Amino acid sequence: APCFPIPTQTLYSVEYPGRVLDGNRALDTLGGPVALAQVGAVSGESGMVDLRYRPKDLFSRPIQGRFVDTSNILLRVTRRPARTDRMDEEVDSATSSSDWDFEAVGVIRKTCRFRALADFQYLPEKENPYHKLGKAISAVDVDALTKFRLDQVDEKSNVPPPAFSRNYLPLDYRYLPNPLAKRTITREEGKPSKVEFELKPRLKPNRTPQFVVDFGDPIPKGPSEMAVKCIKDVLSSDVEKVRECFQERPIWTRLALEGTIALKNPYDLYRTILPALAYNCQNGPWRDCWIRFGYDPLKEPSSRAYQVVEVRVKGNNHAGPRAKIVLPGAHVFNGRPTVARNVLFQLCDIHEARVRRVIDLPALPRIVCDVSVLPPFPL
């Protein structure tokens, strides 16, 4: 393949948003070649170019452009018209490659592009006093400035604002129809087509409504009708596994359930199964625990073993990948470092010998549960 030399001359280019008939006038709208070269030499946010289609009008709102780094080559293409001796002979010079000359002029390192929206333009009348005042200030016309009087200005005239809009980028609206609207077209012979829109039923919620209570509030006796209806769509084997767990142990954390049983569809545990079998306590000794419907832990001394203890571990400088599944036995504390930085352990799941000696002391339980079953000292 033939090789062509490329000059080392560095050039700037401008993607002008308009039809250019006069290059000098186009440069004037950009502030002139000197100002354009100075802005092009600056990189970053400060390398902005203002395009004014009316450079001499003070009320002309500019369109902002920005220089970006490019690696383009500027080519000079010259076409030589074919010569013919006969006037009636038709020669298609465009099909002949020898009639075209290509020459590399230089490398375009930066290109000015205009991607911002143009602001609204306000053109005041030429006889407007503010228009004359702006021209006098721009031209430093002392005589016109001294002759200007505020009483000459009509009270009904409006002062043009410096800017109308602050949005320089178009919004990604996409102009899509309402997803809940169903479009139907009815066609009948001899009549124009009829377009109708009908609202679809709303999508089902991703989660079943659940009961969430505070410490000391009355406990719910059973699930809601929506929870009973939604649990029918879940595998019966998964429901029976969770139901057996609540029969053996009335209070569970979500981590303890996920580490004890294996469901075919784990996503149904929190969204459908638990709201139909238990209620959630959001504070107190059983914070973030799921309690079986009808079971009041305040009236059962044995519920002391199910209260939670929060374990917080100081994080490392380098965070590892987040675990996607819960390993079996992750809810049991045996004195080893935990996987997560913040974990809730139930007292019945703590197997560390030194901590168990404090938990199993016979004189610790209270008669009335007001804040916590154990005394307020750290384990």
TrEMBL record:
One family from Pfam that matches here is: Tau95_N
InterPro entries assigned? TF_IIIC_su-5_HTH, TF_IIIC_Tfc1/Sfc1, Tfc1/Sfc1_N, TFIIIC_tauA_Sfc1
Q: Which residues form the Transcription factor IIIC subunit Tfc1/Sfc1 triple barrel domain?
A: 12-123
Q: Does the keyword Signal apply?
A: no
Molecular function terms in GO for this entry? Answer: RNA polymerase III type 1 promoter sequence-specific DNA binding; RNA polymerase III type 2 promoter sequence-specific DNA binding
What's any GO biological process attached to this entry?
A: transcription initiation at RNA polymerase III promoter
What positions does the domain Transcription factor IIIC subunit 5 HTH occupy?
159-312
Its Gene Ontology cellular component terms are:
nucleus; transcription factor TFIIIC complex
UniProt key word Hydrolase = no
Location in the cell reads: Nucleus
* Keywords recorded for this protein, A-Z: DNA-binding, Nucleus, Transcription
Descriptive protein name: RNA polymerase III transcription factor IIIC subunit-domain-containing protein
Q: What is the organism of origin for this protein? A: Piptocephalis cylindrospora
Question: What broad taxonomic lineage does this protein's source fall under?
Answer: Eukaryota, Fungi, Fungi incertae sedis, Zoopagomycota, Zoopagomycotina
